[in-house]
Amino acid sequence: MSATASRLRDTAGNMIGAIESIRDLTERKQVEEALQESETMQRTLLTNLPAGVIIVDSVSRMIESVNNAAAALFGAREEYIIGHRCHEFLCPAQDGACPVCD
Questions:
Q1: Considering the entire predicted model, what is its pTM?
Q2: What Cα–Cα distance (Å) separates residue 15 from each residue in 29, 51, 54, 94?
């Protein structure tokens, strides 16, 4: 539950009313927990998948995520790969057409 209250006062400072709001956050909490569980499962699956998986932003061509198998293929740590442009690891295209992102 979430509750807020405000007191209304006249120009002399006398209380003339109040506004209260009470919201049931049970459903919202359940949705947030389900989303968290789903994200955890997805992260676990991608991390442990034996095939290399790389997530690349199609506009900037920056590597956003890489799993353990892909990092092993490149012989680099995940922290080093993330944030670099995809051509540094995936293909020689630096500018223009990219066979991976396009």
A1: 0.59
A2: 35, 67, 61, 68
